[in-house]
Design goal:
The model has no long low-confidence stretch (mean pLDDT 84). The protein is globular. It has a 5-stranded antiparallel beta sheet, with no helix packed on it. A 5-stranded antiparallel beta sheet has the order 8-7-9-6-10. The protein has a domain of 197 residues. 54% of the residues lie in helices and 9% in strands. The protein is of the alpha+beta class. The two termini are 31 Å apart.
Length: 592
């Protein structure tokens, strides 16, 4: 092993540790490694920047816009709600609802699909008196599987396609992945609604738990005439930085002041609503002029009014909130909303809300303005998993929604028949959407997830460093050393397992970029066709079922479903094994 190879291996190992320990956002960790490779001379500026001009990465950026435009008008959401109907047969109705989802996720970004349908499924389960945990993990798994059917089904497919083109090789055709994607989707679908359904827990969702135990989350204090700070601002009255408590609303007759700002005025007769460590409310009772309303029957739903809503969000793995406490991030000022409660691993974090340092997958219940969802639906800080309001002009919205779907289908056909490349087709679709005023340039910019693109582009450079230093060849030789005596089937399993482990521990995009150079080195050494290894790596990088952190959609349903980490391990492990066996078998039959 050369010195350069050893340095690359050491830096990548440190990168893995940083990602696993969540020392910083994944995009910043991987970008930092790219900069180190650039500064040490391992990569030239041209090599370091190669990922930023890669066709696959740029196609993903365009797909964010296309997918966002199609889903903006809610045509698919409304169609599926109508398709679901009002049947009383629980399992049959959900099967009916889930059947179109793999097809949708084969052509659209599955993250917004899961975001859109999580509240729909939760509401439906609530109406029928069943636990949403029985259907939210299946929602994530089914969309992941559906994404393996086509070239645009998931960013992983496009990343590998772009890398193959960069290597001067032929990329995937539009439906080439269907050879594996359709069988694993069918088998996976059957699994999640048979054995998987039995393994799923009967957990109540986060919001439902909070509603049932509302007295543990909120307390009410009455402002009497002898309160010396009556007529003063909240900050002057000492109600801003309380130990363990958080003032979220002031009720003054029919008026409700929420969220409460430091400059809000406290008046005699006000009802002050606090959340946080309700056990510390006794400290407030020591203040003259404040009385605890012990007989109050105020519940969380009562905090809502025409201007505020209870909104559930899940902290993303790309969030800028991860490195600071809620207080340090100035959450209340930044998002104009108050945090009622924080759940992690299906348990409430019992500490001062302002001091909680957030992690990916944490679920927050917010008291926020009615425009919160519209303003932050595309935020990379968290996933909003509350229902989106129906557009005001439904007829106009329906026409634009149908037109956007037609444009997408035409683009797919142009690519499938080889008349346009994927990049050109998506660029044309975006141009049509902007020219026809289905979206504005500002909306298009909001749909692009720049942090995801930074991660992918940076990972490309790391893949080049692995190839250039000889590390990819070294890993390939070790895999061959272990598997070659046992045959090609074992080598395929080892490549699949290594890719899948990387996906579960870091991200699917990084796993794909790191493993493709290894797969290509193995193919060249064995003198076999590279496409089989590209297929194996593409599927393995997408098939993340065992942890909530390996794939965004798993993270989205983590809190709303009230899941624990072990639920993913229990339900996802058999599915991972099934998908691996089917994938390896098909690749072995068709390419080797």
């Amino acid at each position: 092993m050369s010195a350069e190879m050893l340095v690359v291996l050491l830096i990548i190992f440190i990168m893995f540790l940083a990602l696993i320990l969540e020392l910083a956002r994944p995009d910043m960790v991987i970008f930092s490694v790219l900069v180190i490779f650039l500064l040490t001379g391992i990569l030239s500026p041209e090599e370091a920047l190669a990922g930023f001009s890669n066709q696959g990465m740029l196609t993903i950026a365009l797909l964010f816009i296309v997918s966002g435009t199609v889903q903006k008008y809610g045509i698919i959401e409304r169609s599926l709600i109508n398709w679901l109907g009002n049947s009383s047969r629980v399992k049959g109705s959900m099967l009916r609802f889930f059947l179109p989802l793999p097809i949708l996720s084969a052509f659209l970004n599955n993250t917004p699909i899961v975001l859109t349908f999580t509240p729909i499924i939760k509401n439906w389960c609530q109406q029928h008196g069943i636990a949403p945990s029985k259907f939210l993990i299946p929602l994530s798994y089914v969309t992941i599987l559906g994404g393996t059917i086509t070239l645009i089904g998931t960013s992983t497919n496009l990343i590998i396609h772009g890398m193959l083109l960069d290597y001067g090789l032929t990329g995937f055709s539009f439906f080439q992945l269907s050879l594996v994607g359709i069988p694993i989707t069918i088998v996976g679908f059957i699994y999640v609604f048979t054995l998987g359904y039995r393994l799923l827990p009967n957990h109540k969702g986060f919001r439902e738990q909070v509603m049932e135990d509302s007295k543990e989350y909120i307390a009410e204090m009455k402002v009497n005439q002898d309160f010396v700070f009556s007529g003063k601002q909240v900050e002057e009255a000492g109600l801003r930085d309380l130990k363990g408590l958080y003032l979220i609303e002031i009720i003054r007759g029919d008026e409700r002041i929420s969220p409460v700002r430091p400059t809000s005025i406290v008046k005699t007769g006000d009802r002050l609503i606090f959340t946080g460590l309700i056990s510390t409310i006794a400290d407030l009772q020591k203040i003259n002029g404040l009385t605890l309303e012990t007989g109050s029957d105020l519940g969380l739903e009562d905090l809502k009014n025409g201007h505020t809503e209870l909104i559930e969000v899940v902290v993303s793995d790309q969030s800028s909130l991860l490195e600071n406490s809620i207080k340090q991030s100035r959450f209340r000022s930044k998002y104009d909303s108050g945090v009622l409660a924080v759940h992690r691993n299906n348990e409430r974090i019992r500490s001062e809300i302002g001091d909680i340092i957030l992690r990916p997958g944490d679920t927050l219940l917010l008291l926020a303005g009615s425009d919160f969802i519209r303003n932050y639906q595309q935020s990379m800080d968290f996933y909003v998993v509350s229902s989106i309001a129906t557009p005001a002009n439904l007829h106009e919205s329906r026409k634009k929604g149908v037109f956007s779907v037609i444009v997408l289908l035409i683009m797919v056909l142009l690519v499938a028949f080889g008349w346009l490349s994927m990049f050109k087709a998506m660029a044309l679709a975006v141009l049509i959407f902007i020219m026809m005023k289905l979206i504005t340039p500002e909306e298009a910019k909001r749909y692009i997830q720049f942090q995801v693109l930074l991660l992918i582009a940076s990972a490309f450079g790391i893949g080049i460093a692995m190839s250039k230093s000889g590390l990819a060849l070294w890993v390939a030789e070790w895999l061959l050393y272990l598997g070659e005596p046992l045959g090609i089937l074992v080598i395929l399993i080892l490549v699949y397992l290594l890719t899948n482990i990387f996906t579960e521990l870091i991200t699917n995009s990084a796993a794909a970029v790191l493993m493709l150079p290894v797969g290509l080195e193995i193919a060249e050494t064995m003198d076999v066709h590279y496409m089989g290894f590209a297929m194996i790596i593409s599927i393995a990088a997408s098939a993340s079922f065992i942890t909530p952190i390996g794939y965004q959609t798993n993270l989205i349903v983590y809190g709303p479903g009230g899941y624990k980490f072990k639920d993913y391990v229990k339900v996802g492990t058999p599915l991972s094994i099934l998908v691996m066996l089917i994938t390896v078998t098909i690749v072995r039959l068709f390419w080797f």
